[in-house]
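Q: Could you fold this chain for me?
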Amino acid sequence: MVQLGRHYGQGPASLAEIATEEDLPRAYLEQLVVGLRDADLVVSTRGAHGGYELARPPADITMGDVLRALEGPIAPMICASEDPEHENTCGRSSGCTVNVLWVRVRDAVVGALDSMTVADLVPPPATPSLIQPTPLHGALTPS
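A: Sure. Below is the predicted structure, expressed as structure tokens.
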């Protein structure tokens, strides 16, 4: 997603290109884009200049959106899932004292993921240095 964020506004990026840039197997990326496409986070374009691109601006896609698309509801333990049906998974959830801890952990993770966007992870484009080199004096330069 960060690579697609870097390419945002420049047209589709091929999975082969992303695989090379990230040193990941293309087959692995092919598996990931299925979930991302199903969640309407990426769109695909077929053809010679096809590939994938973000469906929305990078600032509008949270890392929570990405993780949920790839992994499902965020849950440090099955009994502390974001899924409202999680109480049906364990009949002890409503009276379990440890469940409070797992819900707090989940909420902290969710807060961190939902507060960070793809744009936050895209490094700004390199800008030329405004610092001028200091001339060397001494043995290496003529007096």
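A (continued): The longest strand covers residues 42-45.
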